[in-house]
Design the sequence.
């Protein structure tokens, strides 16, 4: 795994989709050439002292030939509002790639159970599995149809995409875990990755402990540095003393190895 770099990067494009979520395409060749699925970057796109800290974002996709990578950010605080208003050609400061890349792809079938901004975390993995010609089944969940994130990308890389909305405006009306359970019962998947909802994480962990699947969690944390110095992203280990750091030991963990609240 390549060592992370701190670089000035250039914003190539930005596009809002869906409302409240901004896709940023950034040019920084070294990060684009070394990033792997599951990794993230720390980004700072403002020149004031407020906010003080950079913000962490999952790498949605990377194109090593073009030297660009994509992020999808949920616009909800001061830092993300700054980033969402940057113009094409603006400079950003980026540290990455950070975290451990996913390197094991030995699965008869993989399910991706995601919701909200958590969908951005698994696109790179879906693309990697598709290139390896591995079956990928995505369960994409949201409160309503207009809040489905990274839908077109996941449809591009998945064998099949199943939609679940809380209000029934599209697809299955209810919890995405019901659709996951059906995939498992049909024998289509033996591995599950999830991100974006605590209830999803608890469900996948229960399935993992029951021996029904290998479960993995994309975890988030309050990161100040992304490199293990601040310990703001510590998560308690399951059945062991001590803590793991999302930024250094993750962000992807076997579900049975960490405590899920």
Sequence:
């Amino acid at each position: 795994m390549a060592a992370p770099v701190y670089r000035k990067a250039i914003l190539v494009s930005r596009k809002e989709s869906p409302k409240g979520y901004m896709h940023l395409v950034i040019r920084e060749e070294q990060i684009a050439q070394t990033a792997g699925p599951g990794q993230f970057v720390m980004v700072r796109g403002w020149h004031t002292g407020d906010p003080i800290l950079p913000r962490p974002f999952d790498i949605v996709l990377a194109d090593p030939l073009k030297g660009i990578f994509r992020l999808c950010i949920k616009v909800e605080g001061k830092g993300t509002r700054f980033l969402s208003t940057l113009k094409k050609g603006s400079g950003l400061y980026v540290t990455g790639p950070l975290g451990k890349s996913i390197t094991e792809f030995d699965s008869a079938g993989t399910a991706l159970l995601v919701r909200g901004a958590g969908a951005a975390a698994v696109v790179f993995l879906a693309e990697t599995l598709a290139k390896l010609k591995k079956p990928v089944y995505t369960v994409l969940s949201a409160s309503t149809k207009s809040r489905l994130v990274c839908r077109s990308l996941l449809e591009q890389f998945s064998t099949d995409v199943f939609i679940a909305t809380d209000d029934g405006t599209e697809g299955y009306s209810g919890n995405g875990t019901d659709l996951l359970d059906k995939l498992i019962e049909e024998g289509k998947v033996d591995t599950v990755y999830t991100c974006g909802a605590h209830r999803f994480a608890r469900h996948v962990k229960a399935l993992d402990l029951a021996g029904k699947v290998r479960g993995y969690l994309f975890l988030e944390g309050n990161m100040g540095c992304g490199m293990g110095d601040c310990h703001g992203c510590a998560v308690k280990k399951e059945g062991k003393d001590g803590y793991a750091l999302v930024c250094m030991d993750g962000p992807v963990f076997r579900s049975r190895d960490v405590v899920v609240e």
The chain has seven helices and 16 strands. The mean pLDDT is 95.
